[in-house]
Fold this sequence. Notes:
The radius of gyration is 21 Å and the shape is globular. Strand 6 and strand 7 (75-79) form a beta hairpin. The protein contains no helices and 19 strands. By secondary structure, it is mostly beta strands.
Amino acid sequence: MTERFNRKAAVIAAFLFLSSTWPACVVASVDISPVRLDLSDNRNKDTIRFGNGGDVTKSYQVDVVKWSQSEGESEEYSPTDDLLVVPPIFTLEPGEQQIVRIGLMRGADADTELSYRIFFTELAPAQPDSPTVTGLTMRLRLGVPVFVAPSGESLPKLEHIGSERQLDQLFMRFRNTGNVHVKVIEVQYEAPGLAEKTISPAVFYVLPGQTASLPVSLPHGNAVGKVTLVTDTAGNLEYDLQSSP
């Protein structure tokens, strides 16, 4: 699957890294494709195209980390040599593009999918001689997920293990009991008395063996109906919650 990202850094606040070292508030534009890599023993290398869509020269550092999730549902990253990225640092003039090559340096796990992130971090330019630096600068930091399929059979499975209702929201708890990630890309909700189902886009990962919660808005008062999760690996998952407490 090839996904594409092309938007202003100002609207992807989740990927912005704040820095106080630049003298102004900079809004960068990038063009990157794909925004996800799927590797395996049979496909152990790939490329990412990274373009500078802004009007000033930019430099970027590329780092690879092992990606996991804790039981507290936080993202955790650790150093790894499992992936090789070339080049690790590059500079682009306005309108220029860089092809970044990624190679898998190990074999796939026999039983469980491996997950990584490749981070592209915008580097601060050299400071002028003036010691006075004012203003707030936002430094772009964009993470690309990388998944390495198990050498055995891939079995996506997301189990609903409970829900907690708070006012007009339902917090659904899930556990990934399969051996590959599940990414929720859309949440559909329907309930008695609701004329049409509501459809909300989502970006929600649950890695193998991990537990996570997903908030679902209840647009028809406190009524709890049926929730359908549209996923990338497990298809459409339906949960009839009308009898939930």
